[in-house]
Amino acid sequence: MMFKPDCTAFAMIQPSALPGSYRHEDKTIDDIVAEVLEETQMIVDNGFDGVILQNMNDMPIKQIAAPEAIAYMTRIAYEIKHQYPQLILGVLVNWDGVASLAVADAVHADFVRVEHLFTGANVTSAGILEGQCVEIAALRKRIRSKVPVYADIQEVHGIPLGGKPIDDAAWEAVHEAFADGLFVSGKSKEESLEMIHAVRKKLPDTPVILGGGANGENIEELLQYYDGVSVATWVKNGNMKNPIDPKRAEIFMSSVQKAREKKRGRS
After folding, report:
1. What Pfam family is a match for this entry (predicted)?
2. pLDDT class for 267, splitting at 50, 70, 90?
């Protein structure tokens, strides 16, 4: 069955820098896998529905993922899926949506998150990243992949070129580039609400996940409009390298549960 979010809560898993990346020091891939599985258990213990695996600590990264990054991300993703088959698993290989789809398809992940570069072009710290929707569509067709592709629209850490309104950019990603769902988020709760309202007017039935900016205080309100949320920094006390803080995770998931009860009470 194709994954479709419904007040779904994801924790981001961002492993230590992988072998071959600039910040990698002496951890082996076995060391990193052990750390990831320990963190995944904390995520399960704290009631999250799933995880999104991202090699954020490999930065700086340009458009095309290195072969070793693809190999190591496949290993880690496989281990998560094998050990925790009940978890929803998303894959995000920085910043390569084609690589993300290849990894996800190989391990039977539930979806791919394509950040920065599904459509259009974005200026990032690593330069200009260009949309990969054509290459992603070609790979989907070639390997007959059924893994849903979720695309970030105007991700907050990049500057989109062209100044296209958020609703037009979202419509284009779905109807011209064939994304199955979207990630949308602003720099504040107010901006995120403004963005989701605009997107919903043109795409009322497209699944939309809040890609960032969630915390224990705002997520109850935001999930009245979004179908799901991914969180990293807030449940790790402001630093993605920290382990999950069980107290913050409890606060966050309590607010998610209140949002579910409120939203489902209206349906």
Report:
1. BtpA
2. low
**Which domains does the chain possess?**
8-265 (3.20.20.70)
The mean pLDDT value of the chain amounts to 94
> What predicted TM-score, i.e. pTM, was given to this entire model?
0.96
How far is the C-alpha of 208 from the C-alpha of 11, rounded, in Å? 16
pLDDT at 243 over 90: no
| Cα 214 from Cα 134, distance rounded (Å) | 31
Q: 110-157, pLDDT tens digit by residue?
A: 999 999 889 999 898 888 889 999 999 999 999 999 999 999 999 888
Phi and psi at 20, nearest 5°, equal 100, -20
The identity of residue 187, as a single letter, is K
Q: How far, in Å, CA of 48 to CA of 246, rounded?
A: 12
| Cα angle: 50, vertex 192, 111; to 5 degrees | 30
Cα–Cα distance for residue pair 246/236, rounded to 1 Å: 9
User: 3-class SS at 137?
Assistant: helix
Q: Give φ, ψ of 255 to 5 degrees.
A: -70, -35
User: What is the 8-class DSSP label of residue 57?
Assistant: G
Contact 74, 107 (CB under 8 A): yes
